[in-house]
Amino acid sequence: MENKNDNFKEKFLNYSPDEFPNGALVTNDSKIIVYVNSYFTTELLWKVDDIVGKNIDILLTKPSCIFFQSYIIPTLSHEKKCEEMQLTIFNARGIRIPITVNAAVGEDGYVYWSFFNSSKRDQLYDELIKARERLIETTDELKLLASIDDLTGLLNRREMKYQSNLALKDVLSEQHLAGLLILDIDHFKKINDTYGHLEGDRVLKKLGQLLISQSEKTDLVSRFGGEEFLIFRPNTNRDDMLLFCKKLHVLMADIVVGTISLKGSVGVSFFSERMTFDDVFTQADSALYNAKELGRNRTEIYSNN
């Protein structure tokens, strides 16, 4: 009875390197190509006579040729094989094709090479890189959206507290005097009730733009909620802060609602050692309350006396 394994062996013996869907190439110890399979003619469009008998360098791009000489040849000399080397070769039309190469030195001293076209792998890498870049951009956009106030473009409440606490560490370590002011628009509800919420939104936007334009680059400016704005000033003092607030009162009056100039009340407090953002906010809020109690449209600095 005929042995099934014998049939496979007989069939296998009839195969040649031309049957495989990859390039097969043999070089001698002088790196001269002595054999190529049909992959080089069908897929890479080379004529056999144009490459057999030539140095293997004829196939390689200049960077690949340098890598071939400086790494692959020494590796083969020492290890007798190399695997998954990345090279770029030319086809007969001069088109660059990325390939993955395995090679081994045979007992006869010839080097047996297998070339695998890795164009699709490189395309996949490119797509993965682009997908990663898109993901980073989307993440940055989401972070930005999560940190700003939609209406005014200023920092929102959460981001203000987060960034102020970060800035506060620097201020305390460098022993700078930092201040926090809370500005609340006087009688803002009356603006909404009289002129509508669209007009109220316009006023909030204009005031936000004003605060940004008058603040230093190191200041943190926030719409903390409703008609309440916060400014964290990391390098200031009492006189500087009062001058800044006085300027804001004057410029706010240029924002007109109907026939009335916009006005606001301001509470100020300063950071000192071991104080948290919440501590200073509470003090500035107390000063704001005093400003309103004293008739509004004024600035009060917190005092514990």
UniProtKB/TrEMBL annotation:
<dbReference type="GO" id="GO:1902201">
    <property type="term" value="P:negative regulation of bacterial-type flagellum-dependent cell motility"/>
</dbReference>
<dbReference type="InterPro" id="IPR029787">
    <property type="entry name" value="Nucleotide_cyclase"/>
</dbReference>
<dbReference type="GO" id="GO:0005886">
    <property type="term" value="C:plasma membrane"/>
</dbReference>
<dbReference type="GO" id="GO:0052621">
    <property type="term" value="F:diguanylate cyclase activity"/>
</dbReference>
<dbReference type="InterPro" id="IPR000160">
    <property type="entry name" value="GGDEF_dom"/>
</dbReference>
<dbReference type="GO" id="GO:0043709">
    <property type="term" value="P:cell adhesion involved in single-species biofilm formation"/>
</dbReference>
<dbReference type="InterPro" id="IPR035965">
    <property type="entry name" value="PAS-like_dom_sf"/>
</dbReference>
<dbReference type="InterPro" id="IPR050469">
    <property type="entry name" value="Diguanylate_Cyclase"/>
</dbReference>
<feature type="domain" description="GGDEF">
    <location>
        <begin position="176"/>
        <end position="304"/>
    </location>
</feature>
<protein>
    <recommendedName>
        <fullName>diguanylate cyclase</fullName>
        <ecNumber>2.7.7.65</ecNumber>
    </recommendedName>
</protein>
<dbReference type="Pfam" id="PF00990">
    <property type="entry name" value="GGDEF"/>
</dbReference>
<dbReference type="InterPro" id="IPR043128">
    <property type="entry name" value="Rev_trsase/Diguanyl_cyclase"/>
</dbReference>
